[in-house]
Amino acid sequence: MIIGVPREIKNNEFRVGMTPGGVREFVAHGHSVLVEKAAGEGSSFTDDEYKAAGAELVDVADEVFARADMIVKVKEPQAVEIERLRPGQILYTYLHLAPDLAQTQGLIKSGAVCIAYETVELPNRSLPLLAPMSEVAGRMAAQVGAAYLQKPFGGRGVLMGGVPGTYPAKVVVLGGGVVGTNAAYVAMGMGADVTIMDVNLDRLRYLDEIWGNRIRTVFSSKHNIEEAVYAADLVIGAVLLPGAKTPYLVTKDMLPKMKRGSVVVDVSVDQGGCIETTHPTTHADPTYFVDGVLHYGVANMPGAVPNTSTLALTNATLRYGLAIADKGWKQAVIDDAALAQGVNVLDGKITYKPVADAHGMNYTPLDRLM
């Protein structure tokens, strides 16, 4: 199989879909890998490293898309990339289709086999290809929140850990999954007063067992959310419904009651966000104010630390990518139910129900198209 790795073109996206080490693995399995020149530079991987690993360097993305049987990316395809896809071609990347009607329609029209990292799901309901970036984004959320709490950046002027004789920042984390746990871990390490909220009592018990009284675990009811958010200096949105649009936990009418200069970092924004007033932003223009509350809604947070992020992501995606290339996508998803969950669009039809439901479109079970 011919594997294509184009350079990412989303605003301030510096990650790359495959490392030179990954190229070496695909080549060892008998596949050819096309890498667009400079695709890895943002992640500190040089063209010479890719060439030494066995890749063929290609001047332009058009050639990568035209020749490859499978495109391996990081972020969802941009409009110009969707136009390059063809029927039967495999697209293996993050998609986040539930809040993105235009992309969904474009992929349906393309006829490509669209496999989303974020919906590959193991029997225990964990998301092995989303988890690495959730870990990065969660840890970054606390760092970013700490920075924007500083007055020159628009925040209240609160130090996360405070100093003797002062109060530390009050941090509320909405969601106790991978993102929320990592956000709480870093915020706690910075000395903040951390509350983590979730509807899953078993998860809260687990967090209480590992951290004890170093954090507060609170059930995520509307009343409890309001009380916590109104008192918070920093709110981190870390809610996820796999493949589906995120519900709003912080609504617009709550903002006037929040502290002026408080900060919200909505890591859920690429699935629609769990804070109603959040919309996607970029690293070039990351923040805006609503009712005196500073909002950070960068949809590709891990892109700011691309070397770490690319290594963490490709450690997880490589085994599934090799299975697709070695067996063909059909046999690969037959053999692996987790990978089958990743197929979101096939033959012009939506094969992942939460995406179809989000857009009010028809859902076609994958097995009907196999």
List the defining traits of the structure above.
single chain, alpha/beta, 8-stranded mixed beta sheet, 7-stranded mixed beta sheet
Structure description:
This protein is α/β, with parallel strands linked by helices. It has helices at 20-28, 47-53, 61-67, 79-84, 101-110, 131-148, 178-189, 201-211, 222-231, 306-327, 329-335, 337-340, 353-359; strands at residues 2-5, 32-36, 56-58, 70-72, 90-93, 113-116, 170-174, 193-198, 216-219, 234-237, 263-266, 287-290, 293-296, 343-346, 349-350. Strand 4 (70-72), helix 4 and strand 5 (90-93) form a beta-alpha-beta unit. The longest helix is centred in the C-terminal third of the chain and has 22 residues, at 306-327. The radius of gyration is 21 Å and the shape is globular. The model has no long low-confidence stretch (mean pLDDT 96).
Write the layout of secondary structure elements.
Elements: E1 2-5, H1 20-28, E2 32-36, H2 47-53, E3 56-58, H3 61-67, E4 70-72, H4 79-84, E5 90-93, H5 101-110, E6 113-116, H6 131-148, E7 170-174, H7 178-189, E8 193-198, H8 201-211, E9 216-219, H9 222-231, E10 234-237, E11 263-266, E12 287-290, E13 293-296, H10 306-327, H11 329-335, H12 337-340, E14 343-346, E15 349-350, H13 353-359
Parallel strand pairs: 1-2, 1-4, 2-3, 4-5, 5-6, 7-8, 7-10, 8-9, 10-11, 11-13
Antiparallel strand pairs: 6-14, 12-13, 14-15
